[in-house]
Amino acid sequence: MYHAVIIGGGACGLMCAVQAGYLGKKVLVLEKADKPGSKILISGGGRCNYTNLYASASNFISENEHFCKSAFSQWTVEDTVSFFETYGITGSEKTLGQLFPESNKAKDIVDVFVNLCADFDQTILCNAEVKSVEQTADGDFKVIYTNGVKTREVRVPSVVIASGGLPVQKMGATDFGLKVARNFGLRVTKTAPALVPLTVTGKDAEWFAALSGNSIFCRVSNDKISFEENILFTHWGLSGPSILQISSYWRPGESIEIDMLPQQSILDLIESERQANGKKLLLTMLSHLYTKKFAEALRKYLPIDKNLASLSKDDLHQIEHFIHHFEVKPAGDKGYDRAEVMRGGVATDELSSKTLEAKKVPGLFFGGECVDVTGWLGGYNFQWAWASGFVIAQNI
User: Fold this and answer.
1) pTM tops 0.85
2) How does residue 277 score in pLDDT terms, banded at 50, 70 and 90?
3) Distance in angstroms (rounded) separating the CA atoms of residues 177 and 30
4) Which whole number is the average pLDDT over 252-278?
5) Are strands 128-135 and 141-147 parallel, antiparallel or unpaired?
6) Which among 188, 193, 238, 196 has a CA at the least distance from the CA of 213?
7) 334, 236 contact by CB (below 8 A)
């Protein structure tokens, strides 16, 4: 009856169902939640940053940095833009290539898939929890699931695992896809929250907490990469786009460096201001660069009550080091419920990069977040979900 069962009615699963429909293939989508596209609906604050105009393989973290290139050559950013435009969704570019629907409604994205699945007579079954996936002697798959109080069984030649990762557990996220992979003898790389706020404890925790709500444009870096966007001080540490980005590359025990004036030199600014008015307080000058609250908080670290003319060489060195090389050693992260995505997953060497089929288990496919392909913040992970869904649909 069905060419495949797709487990997970999120971005990857819905795209796979629609693309299978174009090819005349019938699929059954089993979604654990009470409606499809739950994570799409909450993404981007309910606005859904559905792709990034500059997405490429270099924006993704994986054991094999080349793995996602094949999928992205088969389904490009242009394909994503064209697909949604065909069904009435025009993109509006925000920061750094981030594309949102002009309507700013994530529901419009989900509606495209739901309507197309209806047109193609694809079956989306919500409140369906898969209990097991087994391969039969003839190579087909037996999928057992519950729907309400009933337990059902379906047999199909292909199974698509598009069940996502561990973030947003309150919406039903589980490690189901990873368990299936392990049950079939596939390797799973170490998983962790990614695109997640970082916590600060110890002697500086009170200082960070007092600055909660202050946002500053910074360059945040470690020995692997750097990002220039805002950071946000919170009562438990640091958040904001650049912190979420660096978190995917951060490991416990490591430090990150923050340049709080990445596009200017604080020493050049002090020298220029000193020549114009040496009596000006450092506090006054810093209050024009940052919020007054943040400038005053720097009293703990810098001689902000001195006038510019009286700053010594040691003072200037201290100021330069603090503003451009502020070091933070996070205590940890806020966990999966505050993470945008999961890092790690089904190892890429277990899958064909061209088809996303398990090499050891013909007919078993993995796509989206449960695969060890993790994108940056800003629509990249949706682009991977659409691409992987498209690729799998061609091969089921």
Assistant:
1) yes
2) very high
3) 13
4) 96
5) antiparallel
6) 238
7) yes
